[in-house]
């Protein structure tokens, strides 16, 4: 299986992989390489979303993309809650290379739009469709949702930052050694 690196100049996004740093739920880096990778179909859908966002003067900051099965196990061991972390025995859509975690930023080098919670905030406030958040936060989440769904992505109702291709189970789970450029080795 080929994974596509998500990087400039082909992809006009900011890469900020949370799991390549200690700023994640495990408190330690999971990835040794800070390279976002996606299945070719997911990369095409992300490119469509990038073009749609650019028309609004917006860009994406990517927190995670392909996530090896081994990394999914580390997340599950740190926070075994299936509402927010896919049980690795069932498999994560990230481990298939067809899911991406991201937010919107205001143009090149700009600040992130306020989404009401940080990435990987495992509280109900992170769910889509919250009406108890400010109008600006609701609007920002709606813009993100609109851009991603217009580009062909499905969404996760529990996490405003998570998007995946439709029918993700049609794609195999990938271990780190199967990636063209392993993230954990």
UniProtKB/TrEMBL annotation:
Molecular function GO terms recorded: D-Ala-D-Ala dipeptidase activity; metallopeptidase activity; zinc ion binding
Gene3D superfamilies: 3.30.1380.10
Binding positions (Zn(2+)): 94, 101, 162
Signal peptide residue numbers: none
EC numbers for this chain: 3.4.13.22
Record key words, sorted: Cell wall biogenesis/degradation, Dipeptidase, Hydrolase, Metal-binding, Metalloprotease, Protease, Zinc
Site (Transition state stabilizer): 67
Gene Ontology BP annotations: cell wall organization; proteolysis
Catalyzed reactions: D-alanyl-D-alanine + H2O = 2 D-alanine
Cofactor remark from the record: Binds 1 zinc ion per subunit.
PANTHER family: D-ALANYL-D-ALANINE DIPEPTIDASE
Family designation: Belongs to the peptidase M15D family.
NCBIfam families: PRK10178.1
Function: Catalyzes hydrolysis of the D-alanyl-D-alanine dipeptide.
UniProt protein name: D-alanyl-D-alanine dipeptidase
Gene: ddpX
